[in-house]
Every structure is written in structure tokens, then in C-alpha cells.
Amino acid sequence: MEGLTVVSPLKNEKNKKYSFGLQKGEEVIFAGACAGANELEQWVKALQDSLDKEKTEAPTANKKKTKKTGLVQRAKNNMASKTASSVLGKKVMKSIVNEETVALLGTIKKIVKTESGSAKKAEDLEKNLTKITFKCYKLLEANEIDVAVFLSADRLVRDAFELLVRIYNGKDRVSQDKIKEALKKVESLLKSSEEILLQLLTTNLSSKNVLRLSFIFSTLGDAKFLENVLEDPSLAQELEKVISVMEAYTQVQYH
């Protein structure tokens, strides 16, 4: 991740006093906010330490090659190890915020902008995804929500992703009616996941963040939206990236 710098506070954040992020040039590729100065200091240090480590790491001739851990992932692991109280909780947290997730946001943003014709809707979605993902991460990190219930919602998302992968792989071999029927099933799975998350998180989220969560699911989980994206040849490359990430995510196990 050459060219990245840790920035705090962020210039364009409304409540920027305890905001922080990773910036490449003028582009902020990861943003977060903390409740106070101590938490902010820990995050900035963890990110900077991870960035410094990435700059200095070099393979040796005799060292076995291993999969490189992402920058944000390493910082998150450093933070999580201090507060998480269960092995399962740590495994969940490790999948929530990583470089792949950050990179994926740009792809999703382009898809939404193209499908809806609205740059504002795409920007709102990106902002909402970032804030809700970070909020869920902090709640899991602090062990403030039931991991088992969270995983039940996650299971529904996985089922939806698995079905979307099958739809994508078979879209040229089945009828449009079958595709629409399957996409309705995807919509139903994601709606059920949303309902579980809303029940789980309502006491921990502000009314604004509850609306953010609903906006995310109503946008990305809408069957018509998914159908339009599947049929748009201009989004073929972006769709392939998203499907690839979905397929990889369904293969991650927490036990």
C-alpha cells in the first residue's frame, strides 16, 4: 500500500475532532471516528505501526512465503487483541475491516452510481457502509453485542451471497424468469438478515445509524437493483470483482 499516510483529524468529517483515516494523495480510502482522545491515539498508533511494518518487511531467501496480512487488518488485530474476550469474537472482527473491504467500496460505489444515475446516492451508500461497518467492528471488539446472534445474520448474508454467485455463473444458461425468482430469494434472505441486525443493534445505534443500515439493505438487497446490475454490460468488470469477493467471503469459517 505504497503512498498511504495516516491522517487525523479528517478535513471533511462533520464531527472531525476524533476522526482518523488512511489517505493516498487527496483520496481518503479508509475513515473512522472514535469516542475520545485515548481511543483515537490507539488507532492512529496501530495504523502507523502497521504502515511502518509494511514499508520495512522484505522476504528472505530461506523464509517460507506466507500470505500478506493487510495494513488495516494488522492495525485492527493490534486493537482487537487488547479488548476482545473470545476467540470467536476475534475471528468475526478480523473479517469486518480489511484492505479488501476498503477497496471493494469503490467498486460498489461505481455500480450504484451507474445503476441509479445518482452520484449522491452512491456517495451516501459508501459513507453509510463505512460508518456501519466501523460501528459493528467497535461493538464486536468491545463484546457489547451477542456474537451468536450476529453470526445468525451473517449466515443469511452468506446464503444470499452463495445464491448470487450461482445466479451469476448460470445467468447465460437459464431463463430470465428463473433469474428473477432467484433474485427475489436473495432479497428475502438479505431482508431477514437486516431484521436480525436491527433487533440486535437498535440499543447500540443512534436513530441516524439505524436509517443508515436500512438504506444499505434497501439499496443493495433490492431484487430489481440486482437484476439491473446483472444485465448491464458496462458493469461486467465491477460485477465480476464483487462476485469474486462474495465467493471468497462464503468460504471463511469462524469455528
From TrEMBL:
<feature type="domain" description="PH">
    <location>
        <begin position="1"/>
        <end position="52"/>
    </location>
</feature>
<dbReference type="Pfam" id="PF05527">
    <property type="entry name" value="TNFAIP8"/>
</dbReference>
<dbReference type="InterPro" id="IPR001849">
    <property type="entry name" value="PH_domain"/>
</dbReference>
<protein>
    <recommendedName>
        <fullName>PH domain-containing protein</fullName>
    </recommendedName>
</protein>
<dbReference type="InterPro" id="IPR038355">
    <property type="entry name" value="TNFAIP8_sf"/>
</dbReference>
<dbReference type="InterPro" id="IPR008477">
    <property type="entry name" value="TNFAIP8-like"/>
</dbReference>
